Amino acid sequence: MTAAIQKALNSLDQAFADDTAEKFGILIDELERWNRKINLTAIRGKKDMITSHLLDSVVAAPFIIGKSVLDVGTGPGFPGLPLAIVQPERHFTLLDSNNKKIMFVEHVARLLGLDNVIVIQSRVEDYAPGHGFDTVIVRALASLPRLMEIAGHHVREDGVFVALKGRYPEEELEQLNQLRLLWRHAVIELNVPGLEEESRHAVLLRR
């Protein structure tokens, strides 16, 4: 498992600490083990988990800015847990309303000693931390207009909102423009090894 993960990481244009593959292996082992008893993800096999959860999360690492990161709707910890592993200098808050998934995220964070991770069980609409974040990141949670409505206010004035999407979200971007919100956007096509036949895009939104 560690060797397969290391091979996958080597296909990315990023530098990783020596123990990254080992930690990712523990994360995937625990996800697969818990998933047999609790429905955490529809992706069952470890090989597919490496591609669709680990790599699909880590490709967003270059877009993270600042010290504080909020992962909205993290589910069983993606993209937040992989990003927290590869960016230990940043502080990650992983937010989700699902108790079982939050229990798993807390378990893995303890197991891996991720002191840079805070886990919160809450709907994003109800979450009120009293401060903004340098980066807010969301993976496949809702449409762009809906995301900005429920989570855009969590981005600091000079921060960035990173929305990870599948295909190019042309219709959602048109809807966002029609709302005349004060957000500038850029769309970047992502290359996720193993998902070459599936579209992946990152939408970066700034005030």
Q: Could you characterize the architecture of this molecule?
A:
- The protein has about 210 residues and is α/β, with parallel strands linked by helices.
- The protein has one domain (about 1-205): 3-Layer(aba) Sandwich (Rossmann fold), CATH 3.40.50.150.
- The chain contains 7 helices and 7 strands; from the N terminus they run αααβαβαββαβαββ.
- It has helices at about 1-10, 20-35, 45-60, 80-85, 100-110, 145-150, 170-180; strands at about 70, 90-95, 115-120, 135-140, 155-165, 185-190, 200-205.
- Strands 3-2-1-4-5-7-6 form a 7-stranded mixed β-sheet, with helices on both faces.
- Helix 6 links the parallel strand 4 (about 135-140) and strand 5.
- The chain is globular and about 50 Å long.
- The protein starts with a helix and ends with a strand.
- The model has no long low-confidence stretch (mean pLDDT about 95).
Per-chain topology:
Elements: H1 2-10, H2 20-35, H3 46-58, E1 68-72, H4 80-86, E2 91-96, H5 99-111, E3 117-121, E4 133-139, H6 144-151, E5 155-165, H7 170-178, E6 184-189, E7 201-206
Parallel strand pairs: 1-2, 1-4, 2-3, 4-5
Antiparallel strand pairs: 5-7, 6-7
Helix pairs in contact: 1-2, 1-3, 2-3
